[in-house]
Amino acid sequence: MGSNIAQKRAAKAQRRKAVVAGKRKAEIAATGGSLAERVRRAAAGRIVRCALQESLGRLGFGMLILVRESAEGGLSMGGFLIDAYDGVKDVVFRPIDGPELDRFYEMLAVSGALAPIEPADARKLLHEAVARAQALGIRPHRDYAVVEALFGDVRIEDSTVTIAVPGWGADSVGVPAGDEVAGRVAAADSPDDGKSAAETGQAPM
């Protein structure tokens, strides 16, 4: 009797997993591939905007965005919510058009305007934020490694500016090289039953 109940529960759990997996495959097909695949395709385009919210230097948190344009003219935006203590708290990746991007700028301006930043300086800032948080045992958002690959061939070694962030002081930390992040992309893009901001295209709050 007991074994039959256990078997029925196990079979039900398997059916539930199969349904979730099927929905996941359908979503991937509808959106043009997995998150990692979409980021890789977008990374082949040219960088048209890279900007940092000034609130990071003033309040210790802010958005960093990178926008690339495909050969066909489509725009893709990666956004990273940086916290001076917690590192990268949220991530977004989504296709976006010009007017929508302008509205995104206006929305963020409520808490701090976005100012242009060199991509190499932006990538260095991201890596340092993650390294500092990990030193405290805080991991970055689960989609960080995947969406960070949008920086593509941007080299941290080409950075010439260190962004001042409250609480960081002058102490340096080991900043991972770009190749280390690229090596984590496949592992980070594992199937999950839930959806992140990066997958739904919602802006981090």
List the helices and strands and how they pair.
Blueprint: H1 2-31, H2 35-42, E1 46-53, H3 55-59, E2 61-69, E3 75-83, E4 87-96, H4 98-108, E5 114-116, H5 119-135, H6 144-148, H7 178-188, H8 197-200
Antiparallel strand pairs: 1-2, 1-5, 2-3, 3-4
Question: What's the gist of this structure?
Answer:
The protein has 205 residues and is α+β, with helices and mostly antiparallel strands. It has helices at 2-31, 35-42, 55-59, 98-108, 119-135, 144-148, 178-188, 197-200, and strands spanning 46-53, 61-69, 75-83, 87-96, 114-116. Helix content is 44%, strand content 19%.
Overall description:
- By secondary structure, the protein is α+β, with helices and mostly antiparallel strands.
- The protein is about 45% helix and about 20% strand.
- It contains eight helices and five strands.
- The protein has helices at about 1-30, 35-40, 55-60, 100-110, 120-135, 145-150, 180-190, 195-200, and strands at about 45-55, 60-70, 75-85, 85-95, 115.
- A five-stranded antiparallel β-sheet has the order 4-3-2-1-5, sandwiched between helices.
- It is globular.
- About 30% of the residues are buried.
